[in-house]
Amino acid sequence: MLPNFSYIRPASLSEAVEQLSALGARAHAGGTDLVGCLRDRVFDAPLVVSLTRVADLRGISTTSDRSLRIGALTTIAEVATHPLVRQAHVALADAAASVATPQIRNQGTIGGNLCQRPRCWYFRGDFHCLRKGGDTCYAMGGENQQHAIFGASACLAVHPSDTATALVALGARVTIAGRRGARSVPVESFFLLPEEDMTKENVLQPGEILTEIVVPPPPSGFVSIYRKVRTRGAFDFALASLAVGLSFRQGRVEAPRVVLGAAALKPWRAAAAETVLAGARLDAKTIAAASNAAVKGATALEENAYKIPMFRGLIQETLEHLRPTPPQ
Ligand SMILES: Cc1cc2nc3c(=O)[nH]c(=O)nc-3n(C[C@H](O)[C@H](O)[C@H](O)COP(=O)(O)OP(=O)(O)OC[C@H]3O[C@@H](n4cnc5c(N)ncnc54)[C@H](O)[C@@H]3O)c2cc1C
Ligand code: SF4
Asked: In the chain, which ranges are E strands?
């Protein structure tokens, strides 16, 4: 049963910011994650501030510098199908299309997708673990099949968002509004590792709202792709996912971004793989070297060693797919 809380629907961003500055207040967008967390007592909220009346937070448009602007309250379904996203940023459209079920994509928002809490079953269950302010990580030595292989310290959870992984590969930024005005942060720096803060997953401060996502225009010859491995094809969170964004110039790879999802508590840049790819021809040797480099330094837990060959294979297959066809 849902606990009691106060609920308000301000009509302006400034009023929403003001209300969200109250101790323990939580933003409500589509509610597909928030309501479950409140019902299951993952966290409490004396006050829930709905963003659904703030019209400025919706919609997809192009800015004067040809960037794509996506309001935080835009539904995941709209991101998955909008022609501006589909044409220029395939990785984002495909990542959004791979989220959950049609019902959740129609109700859930892109802002909520980035701000959703981890899916670690102990965190979602009746366990007062480190992330809830307790003193134990139950996944350490417990059921950790779906947990992190990179960047884990005391907490081993992974970030569940598909769209976050794609947005990092596209070099996107988020705009955050707060009492002191707005600030712009690369999506890559929006998320926090456990060593940076054990109790939250992003840089939002009390009272701050994620208002929009800005994706820069793709350079010439740019391609992007998103791939996801999950237990059930119908709908499921990623066991391993991958977003790649790169350009080809005179047959060579330029400015590659290789980002692993469900590998860490933030979308994980495979920097060593990017170094292998930069300036190289995408041939079999480069692809093998990049996929090996991407998983170098990964640390397996008792139950999740399968993720390392899974990522290696996913990267190899995806880069093969991107390989330019030789002239006949
Ligand atoms: C059965 C199921 C399967 C799922 N499968 C997947 C999947 O495969 N891949 C995937 O990526 N996700 C998956 N999800 C998660 C789903 O995508 C999220 O629940 C959804 O995106 C959250 O969006 P929302 O608008 O409903 O957010 P809400 O539930 O309203 O909010 C989620 C959190 O974000 C905060 N928040 C929301 N908007 C803002 C904002 N603009 N500024 C600041 N804080 C904000 C809220 O306070 C809350 O803590 C699944 C969920 C379910 C229930
Ligand atoms: S992995 Fe993180 S969220 Fe899960 S039990 Fe450990 S501390 Fe809690």
From this structure: 6-8, 26-28, 47-50, 60-62, 68-71, 173-178, 181-186, 209-215, 222-229, 240-249, 252-261, 268-269
Q: How far apart (Å, rounded) are the C-alpha atoms in residues 3 and 6?
A: 10
Query: Do 243 and 226 touch, CB atoms closer than 8 A?
Result: yes
DSSP assigned state of 190: H
Angle, in degrees to the nearest 10, between helices 90-97 and 162-169:
170
Whether 138 and 128 have beta carbons less than 8 Å apart is answered as no
Whether this prediction's pTM lies above 0.85 is answered by yes
Q: Which atom of ligand 1 is nearest to the CA of 32?
A: 26
Tens of pLDDT, residue by residue over 28-60, are 999 999 999 999 999 999 999 999 999 999 999
Q: Given the CA of residue 100, which atom of ligand 1 is nearest to it?
A: 5
pLDDT digits (tens, 9 = 90+) for 291-326: 999 999 999 999 999 999 999 999 999 999 999 876
Chain centroid offset of residue 56 CA:
22
Pairing of strands 268-269, 252-261: antiparallel
CA angle 223, 168, 275 (to 5 degrees): 70
What average pLDDT does range 176-191 have in this prediction? 98
DSSP state of 52: T
CA distance 124 to 136: 15
Closest C-alpha among 170, 282, 264 to residue 273? 282
CB of 319 within 6 A of ligand 2: the answer is no
Mutate to test the pocket of ligand 1, among 116, 191, 236 (most ligand atoms within 8 A of CB): 116
Task: Give residue-wise pLDDT tens across range 112-123.
Answer: 999 999 999 999
Residue 120 Cβ contacting ligand 2 at under 6 Å: yes
Number of helices (H) and strands (E) in the chain: give both, helices first. Answer: 13, 12
